From TrEMBL:
GO terms for cellular component: plasma membrane. One of its GO terms (biological process) is intracellular signal transduction. It comes from Pontibacter chinhatensis. This is Adenylate cyclase. Residues 3-97 form the 2Fe-2S ferredoxin-type domain. The keyword Flavoprotein does not apply. Keywords: Cell membrane, Membrane. Pfam families: Fer2, Guanylate_cyc.
């Protein structure tokens, strides 16, 4: 059996029994935003029911959860969760201004079925070069670029060796993920092995290259965490690069930043550490109160104390 749903200001759309409102609107060519791919995990497909509410299927558990969190009124539904039982339904899409339209359509025909991301559990890896600013200040710009390339080649090789993927570079650091094609346990092991390899490679690089030729040595800070993130392309920038976003990414970045105050070059969250089959030796654990994060985080220190960085006020390490 099939019915019609009227999208106010747009068109009347045929809908079959067993088809969600989102599926019907997309099939009819409406650029209906659906960031999570119709899984009930975002709110971008939401519609306001103007008439015929009694023709809709009951709320799904996803809708109940989202309504609770976002406090939506009763006549707001997720189009990807709602089915239609009869005639007389009139709805209005709620996310549909010109900017949304541009992001969504982006002049590509296939874009109206495009999903911007999927949820994945990944190991998140942040690394930053310490003591790079003094090096820049005291060396010629072309030398700085040359050395930077050498150091980033070390990072890249180690990350690739353990199946990691670099997501972004910024200044003297980068951000990578592990686990795009593997389990979270293997991903965490990969992230830790890549980090330990980089620590070892930097030591060799300092002894064989930096100290003799540039009278300088580098140290790095590494932070690793695991968590559920959204992997996709949010369409920021000119290229179609992979983007990985989510709260655990911020935590991983903060762990990396905490390496200074903890005076240890490799800080891993307890949650990630527990996933390791053969965890490396830990110099102790600490409870970190991270800026902007309400819970304190238990972390393990699996790197080395810094040699050249002044000692900061340190939290209690047990
Ligand atoms: S598309 Fe994400 S909740 Fe419907």
């Amino acid at each position: 059996m099939s019915f019609q749903v009227e999208f106010k200001g747009e068109k009347a759309v045929p809908i079959k029994e067993g088809q969600t409102i989102l599926e019907a609107s997309l099939a009819a060519g409406i650029p209906h935003y659906h960031a999570c791919g119709g899984k009930g995990l975002c709110t971008t497909c939401r519609i306001m029911v103007l008439k015929g509410e009694e023709q809709l299927s009951p709320l799904t558990s996803y809708e109940r959860t989202i309504k609770k969190v976002r406090d939506f009124p009763d006549n707001v539904r997720l189009a990807c969760q709602a089915y239609v039982k009869g005639e007389g339904l009139q709805v209005q899409r709620l996310i549909r201004d010109e900017t949304d339209r541009y992001i969504f359509i982006n002049n590509k025909e296939e874009s109206n079925i495009r999903v911007i991301g999927e949820q994945r559990k990944l190991a998140l890896f942040f690394i930053d070069i310490r003591s790079f600013t003094p090096f820049i200040e005291s060396h010629l710009p072309f030398d700085v670029i040359h050395i930077m390339r050498r150091v980033f080649a070390l990072f890249r090789n180690a990350i690739a060796q353990y199946q990691g993927e670099i997501i972004d570079t910024a200044g003297d650091g980068l951000y990578a993920v592990f686990g795009l094609n593997t389990t979270i346990k293997k991903a965490t092991e990969g992230a830790v092995l890549a980090g330990l390899k980089i620590l070892e490679d930097i030591k060799i690089f300092n002894n064989t290259y930096m100290r003799p030729y540039f009278k300088h040595t580098f140290e790095v800070g590494i932070g690793v965490h695991v968590g559920q993130v959204v992997v996709g392309n949010v369409g920021i920038g000119l290229s179609n690069n992979l983007t990985v976003m989510g709260y655990p990414v911020n935590i991983a970045a903060r762990l990396q930043a905490s390496t200074k105050e903890l005076n240890n070059s490799f800080v891993i969250s307890e949650r990630a550490y527990k996933l390791l089959k053969n965890p490396p030796y830990s110099h102790g654990c600490a409870h970190l109160q991270l800026k902007g994060v309400s819970n304190s985080y238990e972390v393990q220190l699996i790197g080395k104390p810094y040699e050249t960085i002044p000692k900061y006020t340190r939290p209690k390490i047990t």
